[in-house]
Amino acid sequence: MGESKWMGKRWEEMDTDVLVKIFKELNLVELSPVSQVCRLWRLACSDPLIWGTLDFGLLKSNFIQTRASPYIWVDDRSDKRLAKILRVAMAISRGNVNCMIFHYNLYMKDEHLHYISQRSPNLKRLVMPAWNRISRAGICQAIERWGELESLTMPTIGHPPYIMEGLANSCKNFKELKIMGSFDLLFASAVTTYLPKLKVLSLRCSKVTMGALQCVLNSLEHLEV
Questions:
Q1: Is 180 left (phi over 0), alpha (psi -120 to 50) or beta?
Q2: Helix or strand (DSSP H, E) at 152
Q3: How far apart are alpha carbons 208 and 196 in whole angstroms?
Q4: pTM for this model (two decimals)
Q5: Tens-place pLDDT, residues 124-138
Q6: What Pfam families would the database entry show (predicted)?
Q7: Which architecture, in CATH terms, is 8-48?
């Protein structure tokens, strides 16, 4: 046993494509320290195959609901943790992210959204968290940067026209909208006015008024799903 030799490769001698296949099985939190082991591992961690989808679905804020706007209080440590994870993810991904998913209870702020929109110009699909701490200017600025966006999943919002208008003006290939929450006539009118060529509209688990449903069915001639 003492004279036997291990004939396999050492970790630092692994081919990049092998490392990429291994690292694809790790989540975002696990990838962060892995990317700092050595230059070769950081190079493998930056491969576009790993960063096609950036899933924050397990990351939630530590929050308390309040009676005053924005109706939520978030622990400062949650904000700092999110900022740290975003810095690492955006640095390693090198702009290769085309799908980004956030948990509904991840209450990000304008500064977080600004940071990721600057560093993910090729984004095609986005699943948004709750709007509570994101301003109108913040979301409009982000949409302007995401010209390649094709799909948006979003919570319902009090005044939807400005978001629909932003998508129409900046995202020429936009075709899929998924709403979580209530969908009334105002929302439906905004969708049909600014996104008449929409192909997919998902209202699963949403409260839909009859007027909104009629508006959609009568106006969205290109709707497929």
A1: beta
A2: strand 151-155
A3: 19
A4: 0.85
A5: 999 999 999 999 999
A6: F-box-like
A7: Up-down Bundle (1.20)
